[in-house]
Amino acid sequence: LLDDIKGLHHGVLNVAVVSTAEYFSPYLLARFCSHHPGITVNLDVTNRDAVLKQLADNAPDMAIMGVPPDGANLVAQSFMPNPLVVVAAPDHALATMKDVPIERVVRERFIIREPGSGTRDAFERFLMKSGWRLQNSMEMSSNEAIKHAVMAGLGLGVVSLHTLEMELKLGRLAIVDLVDFPLERHWYLVHRQGKRFSVAAQSLKTFILTEAAQAVLPALPGRKTRAKAKR
Ligand code: PGA
């Protein structure tokens, strides 16, 4: 019991997160660490494929990512929505259009994430399912680069809503009102099956699973997200 109590006050945790989770996980950690000032949490920010590799090597205590693959010996629990949206510069013709059909946007140049990114993977699955192909796309391996490229007028971008809080507030980017969007996704807390948790790790896990949604959900713009959530 004494060890347990000590474990709650001290310890070093390693958490691997996909790059898109960098927009909310520091806020979560700030809250957690204010309750547990003796616990140090190291955050490794990388992409989905790299997080999966780390989990396979049993390196981190836990990870945060979009949907992990089936049958990879992993336990995954969803804890918060992760809507995927298409963004445009505010002066782009599509920025103010309503109910834009997918066939209208595939003619545009898209700036998409690199292979290995969960964001990219989700968008590609959507395209495959809907039978459309992008006619013109450029790859950038960071959400920030994509957002700046879109602001600069290079094309449309595909990003998680979590990346957009600042730009939406400042009116620097607009969400395209695309039919069937936002794509509904979720964030998952992931660890290896049978992982032995320290007391500190267990309490971080419980914290994320129970408090994440209230703590950090960004202002979800608008009716579409809410309407979809009711389904
Ligand atoms: P990414 O992951 O940052 O690798 O695109 C996001 C996700 O998996 O949802």
Automatic annotation (TrEMBL):
<dbReference type="Pfam" id="PF03466">
    <property type="entry name" value="LysR_substrate"/>
</dbReference>
<keyword id="KW-0804">Transcription</keyword>
<feature type="domain" description="LysR substrate-binding">
    <location>
        <begin position="7"/>
        <end position="211"/>
    </location>
</feature>
<dbReference type="GO" id="GO:0000976">
    <property type="term" value="F:transcription cis-regulatory region binding"/>
</dbReference>
<comment type="similarity">
    <text>Belongs to the LysR transcriptional regulatory family.</text>
</comment>
<protein>
    <submittedName>
        <fullName>LysR substrate-binding domain-containing protein</fullName>
    </submittedName>
</protein>
<keyword id="KW-0805">Transcription regulation</keyword>
<dbReference type="GO" id="GO:0006355">
    <property type="term" value="P:regulation of DNA-templated transcription"/>
</dbReference>
<dbReference type="InterPro" id="IPR005119">
    <property type="entry name" value="LysR_subst-bd"/>
</dbReference>
